[in-house]
């Protein structure tokens, strides 16, 4: 079991705190959006990943306008890397808390990805929609795969894990 560490974003107002607290009751997985920027490779930790469409295969991630990745991601291919239970440090690394161990990158078909993630979706850019102080980046999936293993999850501003035995993916779909 991964040690549960609370992730605290920058200082926020009480109403926003309550809003975030309410949103936090929706448990999610944890992903990192990776892409090649003009000068270097970028990664940003997200829990706003959503599957959108089967045909064409579309996924989305919602990126804050204040994120350094925000402008550079516009019009670029990207990979959504879904994290396994043991990859909490990687999540922190790409959430503005750099870790001592450098991430291992893999050359993807259209965008770079991270080594040994639980699943990945390589995408070409499909559309970008205004989402208030965020932008919804939709990508068309051109390559994907997954491995076995426990999932990293995020709920109530804390990381937790979901054992593979409880995922039951193949049974449901
Ligand atoms: C579990 C978790 C989920 C997050 N989800 C999102 C998200 O969906 N969208 C977003 O813009 N930032 C999200 N963040 C915050 C970014 O990862 C963080 O602000 C990051 O430092 C931005 O990187 P950048 O400024 O280098 O692009 C999340 C952070 C964590 C730890």
Task: Please tell me about this protein's structure.
The protein is α+β, with helices and mostly antiparallel strands and 173 residues long. It has a domain of 118 residues: Electron Transport, Fmn-binding Protein, Chain A (Pnp Oxidase, Chain A, Roll). It is 17% helix and 40% strand. It has five helices and twelve strands. The strands form three sheets. The protein has a seven-stranded antiparallel β-sheet. Strand 2 and strand 3 form a beta hairpin. The protein is globular. The chain starts with 13 loop residues before the first helix and ends with a helix. The model has no long low-confidence stretch (mean pLDDT 93). The site of flavin mononucleotide has 17 residues, from strand 3 and strand 5.
């Amino acid at each position: 079991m991964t040690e549960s560490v609370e992730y605290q974003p920058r200082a926020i107002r009480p109403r926003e705190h309550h809003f975030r607290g309410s949103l936090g009751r929706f448990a999610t997985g944890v992903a990192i959006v990776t892409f090649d920027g003009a000068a270097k490779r970028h990664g940003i930790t997200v829990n706003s990943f959503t599957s959108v469409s089967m045909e064409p295969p579309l996924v989305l991630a919602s990126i804050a306008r204040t994120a350094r990745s925000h402008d550079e991601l516009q019009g670029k291919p990207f990979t959504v890397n879904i994290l396994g239970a043991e990859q909490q440090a990687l999540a922190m690394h790409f959430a503005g808390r750099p870790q001592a161990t450098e991430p291992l990158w893999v050359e993807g078909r259209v965008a770079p990805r991270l080594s040994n993630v639980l699943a990945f979706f390589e995408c070409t850019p499909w559309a970008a929609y205004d989402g208030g102080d965020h932008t919804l980046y939709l990508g068309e999936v051109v390559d994907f795969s997954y491995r076995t293993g426990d999932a990293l999850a995020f709920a109530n501003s804390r990381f937790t894990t979901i054992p593979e035995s409880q995922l039951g993916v193949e049974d449901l779909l």
